[in-house]
What does this fold into?
Amino acid sequence: MLIRVGSRGSRLALTQAELAAAQLRGNGVEIALVPITTAGDRDRTKPFGEIGARGVFVKELEEALLERRIDVAVHSAKDMTSTDTEGLAVGAYLAREDPRDALCGASSIRPGMRIGTASTRRRAQLLARDPSLSIEPLRGNIDTRLRKRGERGLDAIVLAACGLDRLGLEAEIGYRFGPDELLPEAAQGALALQVRAGEAGLVARADDAETRRRVEAERACVAAIGGGCLAPVAAHHDGDRLTALVADEDGAWVERRSGDDPNALAAELLAAVPT
It folds into this structure.
């Protein structure tokens, strides 16, 4: 049996696709990797909001699934929209790796630093910590962003720790933010194997039940809040409790709450947002 696995073509995406393939191979199953270019890959300069809504790294992979050009799509789960696309489902979540954000280029935050990130979630929380920081837009794959840090003379950049770990670049990390310091993106650290509805059996053996429990609670909370790529929204389940936040883009205010029910937590946060 041949399973065609679709992935973005970046070094990190292909590394992640290989992680998924390793879980699926065996028992007569062969894997063919199919690189696919997404809108987010084609345009690496504009802010995400000018390219499209959240899902700029996902749409073309989903279209390939629906058109039966691939059988499985491998996503960084944080890149997916918070609700499933009609006709598709997450058939498996691989066991989650480090969900934290990582500071590269420095070992701590100091007043007045110039820090690069394309994430409004990171921007909002960093400025809430220290309004003296200068947060500068920075896009590109991991290697590009690490290179641009030096070229632009930035003091540091913030990236997902899991991506650096997967590429063997953990030495670039000067500090890993605890979730109490910088709440991660919903589903950060998890890989999602997306399939057509009714075909979860293709990947079910790779599913990690605990990762699914936590990630689906995070995604449900963000969906109830209505957060997208441009909204500074975050959610993280530590195994015991779900924590979520909504923030002003410039960090003027941050509303953060913890609870057990994603919908109730979302309602509490929305009620607390300044009008």
About this structure: DSSP finds nine helices and 13 strands in the chain. The longest strand covers residues 2-7.
